[in-house]
Every structure is written in C-alpha cells, then in structure tokens.
Amino acid sequence: VKIGLVTSNENKFIELKEIARKFNIELELLKGEKVEIQSNNLEEISKTSAYLAYLTFKQPLIVDDSGLFIEALNNFPGPYTSYVKNTIGLKGILKLLEGVKNRSAYFVTVLTFIDGKTIRTFEGRIKGVISEEMRGNFGFGFDPIFIPEGESRTFAEMTLEEKNKYSHRSKAFAKFADFLNSYLEN
Ligand code: ITT
C-alpha cells in the first residue's frame, strides 16, 4: 500500500520512509506546510493538521507531530518545540538547563492517519535525558542534545537505523502499521 506523508521536514520523511519499508508500506512525500493550530495538546494539533491536509490532498495520508518534553521545565517546550527550535534553539535549551541536575525528558510523536472514512491517532514515546553539550552530526532538530534511556550517545551520534530502533517516531509508526494491516483486511 501507498500512504502519503504531509510534511515540510524532509528528515522526517527520510526516517519514516525507512521505518515504513520494514512494514511493507510505501510512503510518498506530499511536500507542504501543514496548518498547525496552537494548542497544548499534540493529539489535537496532529488531528487538525491531518484533517486540513486531507481537504487539500484527498488521498490516504499521515501527518507526524512531534515534541520534546523536559521535566525540569514543566514539560516545556512540548507542543511549542518547533517554535523553540527556531527561536532560542538547542543552545537556548542547554542554557535554561545550566546547573540543573534533573535532565529527564521525553520525545513524543503523534501520527494521524486519515482517509476520508476514518481518522486515527497513534502515539510513540521515548524517555531519555538532555545532554550537557551538543554532540553528533546525524539526525535533525534536537537530536544532538537528546540521549535515549539506556544509551550514552545522543540521537545525533547514531545512524538512522540505530535511532529508528528506539525512536518515538518508530514506536508511533509500529502502532499505525498494526492498525493498517487489520484495517485493510476489512
Ligand atoms: P512538519 O510539521 O512540517 O512535519 P516540523 O519540523 O515543523 O515539520 P514538528 O512540528 O512535528 O515538525 O516538529 C517539532 C520540532 O521538533 C521541530 O523543530 C523538529 O526539528 C523537532 N523534532 C521532531 N522530531 C524530532 C526528532 O526525531 N529528533 C529531534 N528533533 C525532532
């Protein structure tokens, strides 16, 4: 089967395409700016984006909405992760955490699937810690400062395949693939 992915972030597509391949799902990049409402709830944002994208593309598609939640910052930036990336950036986050002992954080991806008959969301989460400094050149976004649980390397120090083994995105996609299998049978 072929499913569209609406995103402006090519790195997401590269990751998801590889994850999808393992489930025999072909992902097609539908390049475009998603409409993102402002809300404190990632699921609500993801669902609305999917719905609005469907009105444009009118084909079975998914959108991926992700965020980084930092415990010591009361889960900031969460739904505002993209805005924070474009404003204070990774350096700004490291600065906010200077001298802070609790560096626990988690990444969440909420995938929404829509096809005109149904709309479903799938969540994936990975716990970890924020590193003391930026490390690594792979990946994108906040990867250079996020160390997943049980690892000593940041996501940006891992190959695509290694990151995919742990990532929030893979976990969300695995749930979606599971759903899609039984959905297509009926
Ligand atoms: P689209 O909305 O067009 O899909 P985006 O990059 O704006 O692309 P999000 O709003 O979901 O996507 O992303 C929020 C921010 O989180 C953004 O700055 C990303 O760089 C970052 N991000 C998302 N997934 C990430 C990951 O796996 N590793 C590191 N940073 C990530």
Describe this structure in words.
This protein is of the alpha/beta class and 186 residues long. The chain has a single domain, classed as Maf protein. Helix content is 37%, strand content 27%. The chain contains six helices and seven strands. It has helices at 10-22, 42-57, 81-86, 89-96, 160-166, 168-185; strands at residues 2-7, 26-31, 61-70, 76-78, 104-114, 119-130, 146-148. Strands 1, 2, 3, 4, 5, 6 and 7 form a seven-stranded mixed sheet that branches. The longest helix has 18 residues, at 168-185. It starts with a strand and ends with a helix. The model has no long low-confidence stretch (mean pLDDT 97). Bound molecules: inosine 5'-triphosphate (ITT). Inosine 5'-triphosphate binds next to strand 3 and helix 3.
Largest sheet properties: 7 strands, mixed
Bound ligand species: inosine 5'-triphosphate
Give the ordered list of helices and strands: EHEHEEHHEEEHH
CATH topology: Maf protein
Distance between the termini: 14 Å
Number of helices: 6
Anisotropy-based shape: globular
Which CATH first-tier class would you pick? Answer: Alpha Beta
| Helix/strand structural class | alpha/beta
Number of strands: 7
Average predicted confidence as pLDDT:
97
Given as residue ranges, the uncertain stretches (5+ residues, pLDDT < 50) are none
Tally the structural domains.
1
Radius of gyration: 16 Å
Oligomeric state of the chains in view: single chain
